[in-house]
């Protein structure tokens, strides 16, 4: 992608998505067009439901939800022997993933969990909700299932 003429602010994910739709349409890549339109529709629905413009964290949450749905579908299709449908779901995931922020590795997530536990003064599983709330705000776009597992390990030891 080329740099924007407005150097003060990078394009929002929604603006980037609009541009990607145009590029995919020009290239005749129907799968990408379909996936991008699906994401645009989900973002628009979130905007309508909330009554306010979608922020970066909302966009990430919508994208994560769509990826999670596709992973579940791919698993179900694979279990049912529908490999061509499972493959399409995995392709859609590959198209959606670039719209997520860079993922932290497990070591970085572990450090963030430890810092949040210290910050919240958590000492047992009863404090898990408080710590998860803080982590959700600070680790936007991170895989919360990994964070939850790490947090449980730390709070039960």
UniProtKB/TrEMBL annotation:
Signal peptide: none annotated. It comes from the Bacteria. InterPro entries: Asn/Gln_tRNA_amidoTrase-B-like, GatB_Yqey_C_2, YqeY/Aim41, YqeY/Aim41_N. This is GatB/YqeY domain-containing protein. The lineage of its organism: Bacteria, Pseudomonadati, Pseudomonadota, Gammaproteobacteria, Candidatus Tethybacterales.
